[in-house]
Write a structure and sequence with these properties.
227 residues; 9 helices
Amino acid sequence: MTIVFPPYAMVTFILTTLLSLFFFYKAANDSKITLLILSGWLIVQGSIASTGFYIETYTLPPRFLLLIGPPLLFIGILFSTARGRKYIDGLNLKTLTLLHVVRIPVEIVLLWLYMAGKVPQLMTFEGRNFDILSGITAPLIWYFGFVTKKISPSLILLWNVICLGLLLNIVVNAVLSAPFAFQQFAFDQPNVAVLFFPFIWLPCVIVPLVLFSHLVAIRKLRTGTIE
């Protein structure tokens, strides 16, 4: 199965993914181990997707679990172990907040993919996806929350909770729009882009990093361990 994607969408998305890795690398205080793990995961999943492995969507268990399962498991381990929590508490919340600007180019790419017939309209800001608001407001939260410190930690916490909700909203809609056995939406134009390189990096790299950044921020803001 061969699907042609707009080259500009592919290039923009690859650069957006690399920008996400850069932000998280800086948030992890230039941790070489963090960069190595993320880069390795990026390469492995990109290579697997390039073989067409994820195109088969009716296998049991779903192959898609190999994309989202390991990151979610890793996040769970970090939060449930002493060593993991120590790593989390060492992350820079200011940089993690700025990381969310990558949601702007992601939403632009999704719009391009919709126009190319590769994702449904509901996955764009013209449909049910309001995640671009998180990207637009991230620099404001970064500046007024951490640079000038004119907004309180409680407001930053509220922002993270709301943006986490926006993320979960689009994730649910995206999964239920993909051509899986349990598909519920967009049968006329399903979400097929995320089954192919490089857009496979959205569910296995960008979304987990954004999710993890919010969870880390919520933990830090609730415990008062902020920079």
